[in-house]
Amino acid sequence: MKSLGADRVIDYTKEDFTQNGETYDIIFDAVGKSSFSRCKSSLKQKGIYLSTVPSLGIILQMLWTSMVGSKKAKFSTTGTRSASEKTEDLIFLKELIEAGKIKSVIDRRYPLEQIAEAHRYVEKGHKKGNVVITVEHNNKT
User: To which CATH superfamily is domain 2-80 assigned?
Assistant: First the structure.
């Protein structure tokens, strides 16, 4: 996140940012571990709570905060963007990767036969990077 411009990144497994008395311009919950109501007091006056996990709660908070209050709840997903916007994003990411500015973090790898175990691991909510499913190709003709 720092490579993307964040001033401070908080590891939720080590610190409860809602209890440290600090306020933030943006709280980005990338994995759905918090809620707007829990984070609201940690937002600055014009702060934004951003989530990538669609839930009824975040949708209702988005509607409510769009009409009332200065602190906003927002939901973002790449799935609703146009194909050309997604293509631009992929080209931009490719350039960042090639320039060495971002790298993929792999937590664990599982063979396709262990996909259920991989899902169980991800659902525990403690992964520290991507979980990769490997597929073995047999080139028999």
Answer: NAD(P)-binding Rossmann-like Domain (3.40.50.720)
Name the CA dihedral angle for 42, 48, 52, 56, rounded to a multiple of 10 degrees: 80
One-letter identity of residue 94: K
Model confidence over 79-92: pLDDT tens digits? Answer: 666 788 778 888 88
The mean predicted confidence, pLDDT, of the chain is: 80
Contact by Cβ (8 Å): 2, 9: yes
User: pTM score, two decimals?
Assistant: 0.52
- From-to residues of CATH 3.40.50.720 in the chain: 2-80
Give me 5's structure tokens: 């411009």
Rounded to whole angstroms, how far apart are CA atoms 136 and 113?
10
